[in-house]
Specification:
By secondary structure, this protein is mainly beta. It has helices spanning about 10-20, 35-45, 80-90, 305-310, 355-360, 460-465, and strands at about 5, 55-60, 95-105, 120-135, 135-140, 145-150, 185-190, 195-200, 200-205, 210, 230-235, 240, 245-255, 270-280, 290-300, 320-335, 340-345, 365-375, 380-390, 415-420, 420, 430-440, 445-455, 480-490, 495-505, 515-530.
């Protein structure tokens, strides 16, 4: 359970606590969604390393990591990330500590950073614990503690009834512009998990971050822009061989919570979350991975959450109290060319019938398209170039019929969020994003450079434009951000460190707001071990 407490003391206290925690001998498990090794293993698939997983259902599991020797023949043949990978795939006890710090000069920044909320000013997060494995049972305890300076900045006013002044301004959804007026602490179970592998099936309880689908920057159905949802799960323990293919699957059952700044003064009734994903890798086409995912979330009945809620993927759902998101996707890896292409097509609303689908298949759609190309740069370096496009804006069908905005709902007003952050694509409801980046992998780490263009909530923009009395060029008022940044990961003996920086120019903040600059800085330390 998350706990937040306002804090009015000096930042010096927070810095002292941060320094103390950096030196603490905490620990954790292996390859999570944010672990640099996850992206490295995906890159090595392009280099021809034989990995059985589709990389569309993350985090990676211990059996996924059992056959990694070919992947580790690349630039990262040694170092803390590799030691952590080998420890989790073979050792019975492993541990590490990770400390992260963020700074934003002007306003908050959305990112795929789990339970961290990057407000204006300084944000620090310390995560650590340990993992034990005994036969088929594994236990990981990796809690997270965070401190947010949450400095003040200009917010957009709104007139939404029953909502706090910090709320999202354009529609009911639990995405606060600011998490209250004060600095605060927060804590939760972080990347913790209890798991039992019984042959090809795994069951357990988890609060780990998750990532579904082939995308690398915006996961439409389930990503880690929010912290992991406390949940039970059942699924494949490893890719399972069936006639003509291998299969990975998972089914989750969780409970979503709201933030303190949504509908203040009212009790949180909770929302159920259930979702399933399946990925199929046919033998006939090497490197091809096909998949589908579906999630359902909504308000409980007057009797509270029930078994029927969590079986809503199998039975018809009352869409007046619940919502569903679904997608189909593919990822095709061509190692001889060092190339991959992927796409995900999602729907945020059902078709009335098959004829409706044939006439307007684009209704309530969202999609991601991506490609990555790998180049050799000498014997010790590889360079990957990644381009990705995500589009979640309403289509033209909204002129004649209701076209619900992605992640928002008319009854489950908190939307597809958990504790004030999105469970889907970081680009957000009604948004779109174009990303272009290059990553250099060497023996001592990696360096990534990128440029990115993000459009914020064009669904809200067009509604505003239809009703505003703004006297000027309306089509010049889109809220668009242009960002350039770099991220460096370095290995030093048992230490792993990271530095990142991004400069963003946001045009027309909240449509009528000023053009603003934002400088984002990040710092990370991680140390691990095993026996």
């Amino acid at each position: 359970m998350i706990r937040r407490r306002p804090l009015r003391s000096s930042r010096g206290c927070a810095v002292a606590i941060l320094a103390l925690l950096i030196s603490s001998p905490l620990g954790a498990q292996g390859v999570g969604v944010q672990d640099p090794m996850q992206r490295y293993l995906r890159m090595m698939q392009l280099a021809g390393a034989s990995e059985p997983t589709s990389m569309t259902l993350l985090p990676l599991t211990p059996p996924d990591l059992a056959n990694t020797d070919s992947a580790l023949s690349g630039p990262w043949r040694s170092g803390p990330a590799v030691d952590r990978l080998r420890a989790w795939s073979g050792a019975s006890v492993s541990w590490d500590t990770e400390t992260r710090g963020f700074y934003n000069s002007s306003h908050p920044r959305r990112a795929n950073d789990g339970s961290v909320w990057q407000g204006r000013g300084l944000t620090t997060a310390v995560e650590g614990g340990g993992s034990l494995r005994w036969k088929a049972l594994s236990v990981t305890l990796r809690p997270s503690v965070r401190w947010h300076a949450n400095d003040a900045f200009s917010i957009a006013p709104h007139d939404l009834p029953g909502q706090s002044e910090w709320s999202y301004p354009w529609r009911p959804i639990d995405l606060p512009q600011r998490f209250g007026p004060d600095p605060f602490w927060a804590a939760d179970l972080g990347q913790s998990e209890l798991r039992l592998d019984a042959g090809p099936v795994a069951v357990g309880l988890s609060s780990r971050d998750a990532w579904w689908g082939p995308a690398q920057k915006n996961a439409i159905v389930l990503g880690n822009a929010a912290g992991g949802v406390p949940r039970a799960f059942i699924g494949s323990s490893r890719p399972v061989d069936v006639p003509f293919a291998s299969v990975e699957w998972r089914w989750i059952f969780g409970r979503l919570s709201r933030s303190h700044w949504f509908a203040p003064g009212t009790a949180d009734p909770g929302r159920y979350l259930t979702g399933a994903i399946v990925a199929v890798s046919p033998e006939a086409v090497s490197g091809l991975h096909l998949g589908a995912s579906l999630v359902s979330y909504g308000r409980p009945s007057d009797r509270g959450l029930s078994v029927d809620d969590y079986l809503s993927l199998l039975v018809p759902t009352d869409t007046s109290t619940a919502d569903q998101l679904g997608s189909v996707f593919f990822r095709w890896v061509l190692p001889r060319s060092g190339f991959e292409v992927y796409a995900e097509w999602a729907r945020n609303d059902r078709s009335v019938d098959f004829e409706d689908f044939l006439l307007e298949p684009q209704h309530a759609q969202g999609f991601t398209l991506g490609l990555e190309k790998l180049f050799d740069w000498g014997p010790e370096r590889r360079v990957s170039v990644l381009a990705e496009l995500t589009h979640l804006e309403a289509e033209g069908t909204s002129r004649l019929r209701d076209n619900p905005t992605f992640y928002a709902h008319s009854v489950a007003l908190e939307g597809y969020t958990h504790r004030g952050q999105l469970l889907g694509a970081v680009v957000g409801p009604g948004g779109s994003q174009q990303y272009l980046g290059a990553t250099i992998y060497g023996r001592r780490g990696r360096t990534e450079f990128w440029v990115r263009r993000s459009v914020r909530d064009n669904d809200a923009f067009y509604e505003w434009a239809d009703t505003t009395s703004f006297d000027g060029c309306l089509f010049c008022q889109h809220d668009v951000s242009f960002e350039a940044g770099a991220d460096v990961v370095l290995f030093h003996d048992s230490w792993e460190t990271g530095w990142s920086g991004a400069l963003t120019r946001q045009r027309n903040r909240w449509f009528t707001g000023p053009d603003v600059w934002n400088l984002s800085l990040g710092l990370r330390f991680r140390r691990s071990g095993s026996r």
